């Protein structure tokens, strides 16, 4: 199955506010863009991905991510992350009603195309499925197969909300979780804090994040 991956991104000046203690407000927007660039580049290169749609109103981000092969659409609802994702999914299916859609966080700078493919392939049998983040609290990926609404419930403790909504949890090795994704660390490791960035750097980030973070001292 070939997925359309939808990636939401706030205006860069407001993105990644929790990184300010580690990176300062001067570097924070550049890091947010770099995370998104490495995420989009890995998604575009993924063999299980048909196309990538970025939802953003940030002109610079739209230009840079479009250059990487993403199709950029404005955040027409302007009503937060979940509204933006639902809007993008509707836009995709207005042209291809049977398209399988996956919502992916924009802050996965260590993302590996092969790991993303493994997760998407594991999601294929299910109407809706999701992958929890590295902390085990949030969600980094939510999928909806043909004929199924995405119904995104991102933000905060979204792992529990997606599970309660009927989506199948991928990986994790516990009762009710679907196997076949392995560790998928690069798909789980989103970045909100300095600790998260340190973990992503340890996994090995993409070239945009590596350049943006060069010389950055992240306090313990």
> End-to-end span in angstroms?
43 Å
Which regions contain 5 or more consecutive residues with pLDDT less than 50?
Answer: 173-177
Shape: globular
CATH topology: Spore Coat Polysaccharide Biosynthesis Protein SpsA, Chain A
The largest beta-sheet arranges its strands as 3-2-1-4-6-5-7-8
Mean pLDDT: 91
Number of strands: 8
Q: Approximately how much helix is present in the residues?
A: 25-40%
In CATH, the architecture is: Alpha-Beta Complex
Assembly state of the chains shown: single chain
Provide the β-strand percentage band. Answer: 15-25%
If helices are DSSP runs of H or I spanning 4 or more residues, what is the number of helices? Answer: 8
| Biggest sheet descriptor | 8 strands, mixed
Whole-number tally of structural domains:
1
Question: What is the element string, with H for helices and E for strands?
Answer: EHEHEHEHEEHEEHHH
Radius of gyration: 16 Å
CATH superfamily: Spore Coat Polysaccharide Biosynthesis Protein SpsA, Chain A
Name of the top-level CATH class: Alpha Beta
Secondary-structure class: alpha/beta
Give your account of this protein's structure.
With 220 residues, the chain is of the alpha/beta class. It has a single domain, classed as Spore Coat Polysaccharide Biosynthesis Protein SpsA, Chain A, CATH 3.90.550. It has an 8-stranded mixed beta sheet with strand order 3-2-1-4-6-5-7-8, with helices on both faces. Helix 1 links the parallel strand 1 and strand 2.
